Amino acid sequence: MKKAFLISIFLIISISSIFANPIDNDCDYLETLLSDVSIDMSLSLDENNLTTQEIIDEIKSIYNNTASAREEKKSGIDKKAFASAINEAYRKYSKINGHAAVLSGNDFFVPFEHQFIFYSDLYFTKENDSYIVYKNYKNIKKGMRYTGNIDNLFKTIQNNQILYRYGIFSTKKIKNSVISIDNKDFTLSVYGNTGSVKNRKDYDFKKIDNCVYLKIEKCSYSDKNLEKQFFADSEKIITDFKNTDSIIFDFRNNLGGFSKFLNQFSYALIFEEKTKENENKFDKWNRSITSGHKRINTRTMINKTISVGLAPSNYINYCLENIDNKYLVEAEESVTLNPWYKGKIYIMINPLTCSAAEDFSLSLKKLFGDNVIIVGQNSNGSLDFTDVYRYILPDSKIQINLCAVDFRESNLLKEKCWHGDTKGIFPDYWCKPTDIVTILTELTGNKKLHNFIKM
After folding, report:
1. What's the Cα-to-Cα distance from 410 to each of 98, 176, 402, rounded to whole Å?
2. What is the mean pLDDT of residues 318-335?
3. Is the pLDDT of residue 15 over 50?
């Protein structure tokens, strides 16, 4: 009897192991992440009366329908199918466009893709509230009136004349678009890319007559010596700010990092002298422009913050004291500054301009207004959600990047040039990558820029 009982127990265990889902352990951990550290998914759960179990069930369902038996036989889990299932469930259930990302080996998934502009060669002039065809283009004649969505007209400049170029947003490569002219539909060819930036250095600072050019391609250094050199070279170029009519910040392909690598430049444009009083004002201003943001506040998140060592102890204590509040909202502040710099500030951006570079661009636009002129294509759009942390699922070792802070209601993102996740910052003057130096030359009147700014 005892032997029969043991055999039956063994069979039950064996059968359950056969039918056990190989991703169960990872899903248990993932369920905690979705509710306790991912602010965009957590907000979606709250706002839509969802449970994490519903999301996990969806992940398992997608996985079971797509997993390769061959891959499962080799390693127990079809990692690509699992990573894709997580991504698809995130896309379905998160009603908020956060910056989640799923990585497994060479496979990289993002729930919400950046939207690129695909341009046509059709231009318009603006006459009162109407947009008129600038010159003949195939079967569209000069003088005809645009009757489509004006959001598809992008301000640019040619031969010192303001024009509006037709384009369309898309996450996928497209070749044609339908446009309405005089209430009739026409098909246009469109094209677009991010372009390339030659002379790829981490940074390049130059004084060009009465203009200072700063190309900054990264805001993060693993090598401390390179970091020190960056700050030393920055101090040298900052001294030239007082003798310039214009300053150009080239943030094309700047994928972001830490804001400390750019704060010194905004400080130098606001204050002529370094004093303790000015430093305190600057810190207060920095806090004011991001006030209004919301941070997820759970014990899991606090432990993660402690483990990465980026938060001071007084902040950790503040989080623990308010542990009953799942979300902490930074109180709004108002700080008034009167910058000394009165020249023009030009900022070059493209779809690979992200995070800290977007932060800096928006903060200058907020403070200097029309004296800041942004040129290029729309930026990446990576400020709606910040403080990205990395998590590794225990069995599959799939990496999940999730955000802890929601900046959508912050002061910084109230700028008119900001259009949110997937669209980012809209330039004042739109242009193809190959036209950006020509546009800058027209705006600044500095013909030497072609010798220093490489495409």
Report:
1. 15, 37, 19
2. 89
3. no
SS3 readout for the chain: CHHHHHHHHHHHHHHHHHHCCCCHHHHHHHHHHHHHCCHHHHHHHHHCCCCHHHHHHHHHHHHHHHCCHHHHHHHCCCHHHHHHHHHHHHHHHCCCCCCCEEEECCEEECCCCCCEEEEEEEEEEEECCEEEECCCECCECCCCEECCCHHHEEEEEECCEEEEEEEEEECCCCCEEEEEECCEEEEEECECCCCCCCCCCCEEEEEECCEEEEEECCECCCCHHHHHHHHHHHHHHHHHHHHCCEEEEECCCCCCECCHHHHHHHHHHHCCCCCHHHHHHHHHHHHHHHCCCEEECCHHHHHHHHHHCCCCHHHHHHHHHCCCCCEEECCCCCCCCCCCCCCEEEEEECCCCCHHHHHHHHHHHHHHHHHEEEEECCCCCCCCEEEEEEEECCCCCCEEEEEEEECCCCCHHHCCCECCCCCCECCCEECCHHHHHHHHHHHHCCCCHHHHCCC
Q: Using one digit for the tens of pLDDT, what is the confidence trace for 368-415? A: 999 999 999 999 998 888 888 999 999 999 999 999 999 999 999 988
Name 375's Cβ contacts closer than 8 Å, sequence gap at least 6. 346, 347, 348, 349, 427, 428, 429, 431, 436, 439, 440, 443
Given a cut of 90, whether residue 309 has pLDDT beyond it is no
Q: What is the pLDDT of residues 72-130, one digit of tens each?
A: 888 889 999 999 999 999 999 998 888 899 999 999 998 888 899 999 999 999 999 99
pLDDT of residue 8 exceeding 80: no
Largest CA distance in the chain: 97
d(CA 27, CA 55): 10
CA 274 – CA 171 distance, rounded (Å): 45
CA-nearest of 257, 292, 259, 263 to 279 is: 263
**Structural contact between residues 429 and 443, judged by C-beta atoms closer than 8 angstroms:** yes
Nearest to 294 by CA among 318, 326, 330, 324: 330
pLDDT at 197 over 90: no
Taking only the tens place, the pLDDT of each residue in 123-180 is 999 999 999 999 999 999 999 999 999 999 999 998 889 999 999 999 999 999 999 9
In this prediction the pTM is 0.88
- Tell me the torsion sign for CA atoms 354, 360, 365, 371: negative
Q: Distance between CA 219 and CA 355 in Å, rounded?
A: 9
Residue 176 pairs in a beta bridge with 189
